[in-house]
Amino acid sequence: MSKNREKLLYGAAGVVGSSILAWRTLFPWIGYDIQYLKRSVEVGKYVMKNITSGRYLIDMFEDDVQNYPTKPFIVFEDRVYTYEFMDQQANRVASVASQWKLKVGETVAIMITNEPAFIWTFLGLQKLGIAVAFINFNIRKKPLVHSIRVCEAKVLIVGQGDDLLQAAEEIRLELEDVPIFIQGTSLLQGQSYTSFDELMQHAVPAGVCKAVRAGVHPLTPCCYIFTSGTTGLPKPCIISQTKAVALSALLILVKFSDKDIVYTPLPLYHSAGGGIGLLGTIGTGATLVLRRKFSAHHFWEDCRKYNVTIAQYIGELCRYLLAVPEHPVDGEHCVRVMIGNGLRMDIWERFQSRFKVPNICEFFGATEGTTAIMNVSNRVGSCGRVSPFINLFDPVKKYIVKFDVIRDEPIRDKDGHCILVKPGETGLLLATIPPQILQAGFYKGSKEMNEKRIIRNVFKDGDVFFCYGDLLQIDNDYFAYFKDRLGDTFRWKGENVSTYEVADVMTGLDFIHDANVYGVEIPGTDGRAGMAAIHLVDGTPISDDILKMIFNHCVKNLPFYAQPVFLRFPKDHTLTLTFKQHKVELVKEGYDPDIVTDPLFFRDDVNQTYSPLTKESFIQFRSKSKL
C-alpha cells in the first residue's frame, strides 16, 4: 500500500462519526477487518477479564463443574465422562500429587495417550499450581530423556500400555532421580515404579482449596508443549497461564458456545488437540469427543454418531479424508465449522464441496508464538488477515516483511530497517513481543533458542519482533496465504523455489495422492535441485504413461527451474504424528540408488519423460553431464 494511502487510512481511523459506507468506498477490504475485529474484541475481553481477575484455566474448569455437573465433558470410545466425574478424578490426582510437596510452578511430566486419564491428570496437577509437560508418547530414549530433563520435571507419570511401560524401562537408569509412576497396571517390574492407579484408589476425591495454588500468577507455566523435534531435539514451549487462557478463547472466533460438540482425533500433547481442542472446551461447558488416534474411515462416521458441530484437522489430514472412497452420506453431518491449519489450496474447494462443510476456519501460528491469525471469512486458501487497519487495534501487531531466502535474513533498506511487502508479494511473518513475554522467553531451558526467534531493529532501532520462520503472501484484500517454511524454500537456477507451490501443482493430477517436495544437492552446482517424493492413489502403478503425464504436467504448469529434477515413490508415507510432511530423512538420503530402495527417476528432457535413475545415470549426475 502506498505511503499516501496508508496515511489516509490512519487519518480515517481517527475521524469520529465516519460512516462504514464511506470507509468501504475508500477501502473495499475493510468489511473483512470489521468482521474479524468484532470477534477478536470478544476474545480480547474474555482473556483480559479472566487474567485480571485471577481466573485461570483450572478455575474455569471448576466453574464448569458447578454449572454443568452432569453434562458430558468427554466422550471417549462410546463412554461418557461428565464434568463432575472428571473433577472427582482430578481431585484424586491432586490428593496423590500433594504428597510430593512440589512448589507452585514446578513441573510434572506426563506421557499419556489420547484418553480421559490424560485430561484428569492434567487438571489434577493444575489444582495444585503444578506445571505439566505434555510428552510426545511416540518418542523414545535420548529424545525422551531430553524432554523430561529440559523442562526440569520432578516426577514422570506414564500412561497405560505396554509400549509406554517399555519406554519408561528403557530410560529409568538415566532418570534415577525422577520418580516414575505408571497408570493402568499394578503388576510392575522391579521397584523403580509405583502404581498410580493404586494410589488413586485410596485417594479422597474431595475438592482442593484454591489457597493451595495462591502463588499462581499470569506468567506461571500452565504446561509445556514441545516442538516436533524434526530439526533437533524437542523444545519445550512455555504455555503460561495467560497463554492457556488465550488458547481457550480462540474458538470464540467461530462463535463457540456450551451447545457445541468438538471432535478431535489429534494428539493431546500437541497445541491443536491439547490447546485449541481441550483448552477451548474448558470454560465454555461444551463437550469434547476424543479419539485415540485419527482414522480416515471413522472421521465422518464419528461426527455423525456424536452430532459433532466443530471438527479439528491439521496438516495432511484432509487429504487422507478425500482419499476415502466417496459415499452418499459424505455430506450428512452437523459439522458447521472445521478448524485447523495445513489445508492446502489444491484440495480446499474439493474437500469443502464433497463433505458439505459450511465453514473452514484455517489459522496460522506457532506454539511458542506471540499471536496467531485466523480466517473467519471462509476465504478459500487463506490462513487469516494481516491488515494495517487491524494493527491499529491489535495489542500484538503483525507484519510481513521482504526476505532473502539465500542469505536467510530480512531485506533491509538503506537505514537498516525491514521493508513491508506489497499485495501479491511473499515475505516473512513477524509479530511484536509483549515485554513480559520477552522477559519470560518462548522456550524453557535455553537462552540461545529464545534468541533465535527474535529479530531486532525491524522498523526502528531497538525494537524486537518474534520471527515465525514462515513465508506468507498477502492479496489485495490483505488476506494472508501460507507459502513455505524458510527451511523448505530452496534456490535453483538462480530462482527461489517454493516446495509448497510445487506440491500444489503436482497434486493437481488426480492419480497423485500427495507430493513431498524438497531440495537436494548436486556437486558442482549452485543451490539445490528439486526432488519430489510422490504417493500415488492406491492401486495406481508406476507406468510409462504415468511418468510421461507427470513430466508434461510439470512442464505445462511450472517454470523450468521449479520442475523436479528427481522423483521418488516411497512405499510408506513420511508424515509426523501431526500429519505434517517429514523431510529431514528424505533430504539426507537424497537420490543415491545405493541408499534409496524406493523407485527413483530423473527428469529426462531428451525423451520428454521421467526415466529410471540407475547407478550409471547417478554417476553421470554427480559429474554434471546430465545437467
UniProtKB/TrEMBL annotation:
GO biological process, one term: lipid transport
Family: Belongs to the ATP-dependent AMP-binding enzyme family.
EC top class, as a word: ligase
Record has Ubl conjugation as a keyword: no
GO molecular function, a single term: long-chain fatty acid-CoA ligase activity
Main location: membrane
Short name of one Pfam family: AMP-binding
InterPro entries in alphabetical order: AMP-binding_CS, AMP-dep_synth/lig_dom, ANL_N_sf
GO cellular component, one term: peroxisomal membrane
Record PANTHER family: LONG-CHAIN FATTY ACID TRANSPORT PROTEIN, VERY LONG-CHAIN ACYL-COA SYNTHETASE
Topology class, membrane: Multi-pass membrane protein
Cell compartment(s), UniProt: Cell membrane; Peroxisome membrane
Record key words, sorted: ATP-binding, Cell membrane, Fatty acid metabolism, Ligase, Lipid metabolism, Lipid transport, Membrane, Nucleotide-binding, Peroxisome, Transmembrane, Transmembrane helix, Transport
Function: Acyl-CoA synthetase required for both the import of long chain fatty acids (LCFAs) (C14-C18) and the activation very long chain fatty acids (VLCFAs) (C20-C26) by esterification of the fatty acids into metabolically active CoA-thioesters for subsequent degradation or incorporation into phospholipids. The transport and fatty acyl-CoA synthetase activities are genetically separable and are thus independent activities. Esterifies VLCFAs in the peroxisome matrix. The VLCFAs are actively transported into peroxisomes by a PXA1-PXA2 heterodimeric transporter in the peroxisomal membrane.
Reactions catalysed: tetracosanoate + ATP + CoA = tetracosanoyl-CoA + AMP + diphosphate; a very long-chain fatty acid + ATP + CoA = a very long-chain fatty acyl-CoA + AMP + diphosphate
Regions that span the bilayer: 7-30, 117-139, 268-290
EC number(s) from the headed UniProt entry: 6.2.1.3
Occurrences of domain AMP-dependent synthetase/ligase (ranges): 61-389
Organism expressing this protein natively: Sinanodonta woodiana
Domain of life, per lineage: Eukaryota
Protein name (record): Very long-chain fatty acid transport protein
